[in-house]
Amino acid sequence: MKDTNCGYCMRGELLEKFGIYICDLSVSTLILFKEQSKRGRCIVAYKDHVSEIVDISEEDRNAFFADVTRAAKAIHKVFKPDKLNYGMYGDTGCHLHVHLCPKYKGGDEWGGTFTMNPGKVYLTDGEYAEMIEKIKAAL
Hints:
Helices cover 32% and strands 22% of the residues. By secondary structure, the protein is α+β, with helices and mostly antiparallel strands.
């Protein structure tokens, strides 16, 4: 099931507004979030356009959280954050996804909730490509 207005479903220009496709995982897609004030921030989006975790089978839910864990391990390996926050939202696009938001001691917003879209740090295409290759290698 896909929604033609959803960047997670359709990719292309809709996804490129906020993220860069990294790879497919078992039941989800791994995306690099373009705004990188939290170095290494990614999104794991479920394969289908569903709104709630209760809308998928127990098997797919377990596989989805295994994908989140796999991505988290790669982020820890590559970027070495002091803490990785996990945010599950979706009341705007209604597509099940998890934000993986690295936090660093002494850094921006340490000790508080991360800003969803701060609009502070954007990288060059080359810097994004380098990050993506390191994440893929760590998966």
